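Figure S4 source data
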Amino acid sequence: MGWIEPELPDVDVAVWSRGTRAEKIRPMAQHWACVGFGTPVVLHLFYVLKIALYTAGGAAIVAATTGLDGWAEPIAFEKVVLYTMLFEVVGLGCGFGPLNNRYLPPLGSILYWLRPGTIRLPPWPGRAPLTRGSTRTPVDAALYGALLAAIAWALCSNPLPRWQVGVVLGVLVLLSLRDKTIFLAARGEVYATLAMTYLFAGNDPVIAAKVVFLVIWLGAAVSKFNRHFPFVVSTMMSNNPLVRPRRLKQAFFERFPDDLRPGRPARVVAHTATAVELCVPVMLFSTHGGAPTAVAAGLMIAFHGAILAAVPMGVPLEWNVFMIYGVAALFGAHAELGLADLDDPMPVAALFAVVAGTVVAGNLFPRKVSFLPGMRYYAGNWDTGLWCVTSSAAAKIAENVVAVAAMPAAQLQKFYGDRTPILIYLGYAFRAMNSHGRALFTLAHRAMPAGKQDDYAITDGERMCSTALGWNFGDGHLHNEQLIAALQQRCSFEPGEVRVILLDAQPIHRQTQQYRLVDAATGEFERGYVRVADMVTRQPWDDELPVHVT
């Protein structure tokens, strides 16, 4: 990888451009296997600087809080929780910048959510009163501004009264009922839940926060009981800026360059990481000091440090820094506190039931529960989608959708010019390197009319979220039928102008993934399923999986 310029595949563009989609993905996937996305070193250094600024900001807030005995006091921990929530909901955390295909501007979030007229997606518009519609109103923008102000006020308070945290949570609830995107962007499943623990009395905030951390780790570990996770590992390691030798990157695949399924090293890393995430937190939670706690804490710090060093796509970097801080502040500094020390077990039990119940529901019914509250982190098993968009439809989106960011191809064109198709296909390759990519590109043939596929540009659903909603982080729940309907309302697409492939995640108790093909103008026109076994035995460029129509 270069310092300033990306390291792109060396192909004869004229010859490459004449190939089929599968033929064009193949050299991109082979390039990914030994180089990754080819990100310039300077961009990785940019993210290192951002992590340093985030860390310095949190340290400054804690240092400015008087009366603390140390950085691990419950008030200090709560302020770091709120600070990180603010960092995320403004748009500086997950999904920020070029590594998430955000160039100009490098974030959406605050630029969209303070602006009336942008798209909002209420979670239960038919059931929650006063939440219908898909257009952000001045009231919605004011609520978002109130959330930012409430968090900032809490961070400046000295000491931090519980009622101020209650105000933050109350505003977040009201705002989230109007727009689920903001709840997900705030990483509400982590930071709102942890903020809630501060409302408990005595030692209970620390113990409850430990319980939340335990559920996060165990939920994430259980979600990796699948055949997808090794694909995540091999793809992540080939894109890891610290793994420089090409031979080492290639070793994570079965037989480079012709067989790019995960190789034994990828499977070993995947299974080892799952075992660590499943077993070590139990040891950390159940021991109360001494060598066992120190070893367990060290392992979990190393675990999150390894994820951080890999700079994964979607860049959840600050979250991993926060988790490292949480290990030290909760389990290190307060190792002596356990369930036996609870002053009032009932609120903690209720919180556990809600959080753990959401994780269970998310694994059983992934179409109903986002992978974030379902805590299926890094599992390779998420709701995904592809949008097939004609040039006329793209023009309608640009004209009728209130947005800050241009469509992804237009953003890339500004930076890379004639090399833009290479970058687009590297994005396809990333999707195809994950197991679900084989299904998505197979279904693309069924979604677009025969003989007219050249009339469409295929755009990842993530990129549609980036333009239309201002935030994306791997969550197919944000670009399903609800977003399709919102765009249709604004753009009045003609039949055939926009075709969308929606692929559900795999329920933990089944070996299939459901799909739907939707025309933005006329609605769903096909549904069925694909078998996981067919996905994991194919190559990234294989777009001829068996499809079962129901």
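Figure S5 source data
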Amino acid sequence: MTLFKRLLLCLILVTLNAFSQKDQKTSFQVVPLGVKGGIDEKNLSAYLLAPVHTNDYICLDAGTINAGIEVAIKNKVFKVSTSEVLRKYIKGYFISHAHLDHVSGLIINSPADSSKTVYATEKCMEMMENHYFNDQTWANFGDKGPGTPLKKYHFETLKTNLETPITNTQMTVKVFPLSHVNPFESTAFLIKNGDSYVLYLGDTGPDVVEKSDNLKNLWTAVAPLVQNKQLKGIFIEVSFPNEQPDQFLFGHLTPNYLMKELHVLEELSGKGTLKDFNIIITHLKPPTKNIVKLKEQIKNQNDLGVKIIYPEQGERFEL
């Protein structure tokens, strides 16, 4: 082989490697403030999400805030005070539904918080206004609703399938309805940063149990993003092991139903498109023996080859 051909081959290999690294570049950083689905009030669903290399975080659900920030600081994720993360780093909250394990951190920390936006669908916002921020259960820190609004938070109602800019960030959001014990609704948030996306699902049951097509509609909407490798990951709950009877799922997923739903997504996005795709498992419900069991079941049923991620409170990762 001549020197010229060797140099040409090296150039081709370097170029291919560069393109490969470009495809694998991360777009988002995640700091879980809470990852569990019940009992432990210091570790309930809440995930900080921001574009990489920024501190412009949004909080996806808000079950635990302060305790999670403290764990992240202990882990050296943040080098500032708990108050500064709360008041300056978190630019807004996205509440998937108004159950207390998804909103209690927002409520409890509201007196110490700074002005920002709380995003939710109409039904979710109505529940928070009427039952929490109502000047009776808790002071109304919002800019509308019962009593005397203190106007610390701007309550922004999100409409389905409409892309909405997220204030004080470079990101946008689209929302999709989920079924969480039909007819009660939860929400999926599709977050966009440049040409990259992350999908976060609040609590949801499988379509077949919920007698709904919400998940099928969601998978149809995001399938092109999976095909084009623009979707960096899906946050999705698995609350119970497979032994949980359907009538006692209460709007949640098992490993079996998770994989069935992911197969529906793959049918829409194309065979093999989910191999090594990031699936972030949320809302694990104690006791520990159930969590151990469902993790083993997910491992054994993962015939799609997805990359399963179990986030830990206060431990940063990138997507």
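Residues 7-23 have pLDDT under 50 and may be disordered. The chain has one domain: 27-318.
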